[in-house]
Design brief:
Layout (H helix, E strand, L loop, with lengths): L6 E2 L4 E6 L2 E6 L1 H7 L2 E5 L6 E2 L4 E7 L3 E5 L4 E6 L1 H5 L3 H4 L8 E5 L3 H4 L4 H9 L1
Antiparallel strand pairs: 1-2, 2-3, 3-9, 4-6, 5-8, 6-7, 8-9
């Protein structure tokens, strides 16, 4: 099942770790709830953020929501495709629609996030 290798935050971001670097994006559930994404403010590259710190925002035709970083670390890359073509978040939220990558300060924080089963229960009550 897609998404089983991911971890999920209560703020509807997914996290996938590869070699100590986490790739993050919004979940399929979040993009459906938001509707058409029209603007994404991404974090500042080379800046270190604390867990749960606001790192940017995502704006849709319905609403604007803050993006909270679910893990602490230094932003090593932002997805310029999403910055330039925000609706990529809607068409491919788990693939090309990823938002940014973070070099983890504390890899153990990832294990504190929800797995797919827990996230599904969280979103579907």
């Amino acid at each position: 099942m897609a998404g089983e290798e991911l971890r999920y935050s209560k703020d509807h971001l997914w996290v996938k770790v590869e070699d100590g670097v986490a790739r993050l994006g919004i979940t399929e559930h979040a993009q459906r709830e938001l509707g058409e994404v029209v603007f994404v403010e991404l974090p500042v590259p080379k800046r270190t953020y604390a867990r749960d710190e606001v790192v940017g925002s995502i704006e849709s035709v319905k609403t604007t929501n803050d993006l909270f970083c679910p893990v602490a670390g230094e932003v090593v890359e932002i997805n310029t495709l999403v910055r330039d073509t925000p609706d990529t978040v809607n068409t491919d939220p788990l693939g090309q629609g990823w938002l940014f990558r973070v070099r983890l300060s504390d890899p153990a924080q990832v294990q504190e996030l929800m797995d797919l089963k827990a996230y599904t229960e969280f979103t579907h009550g």
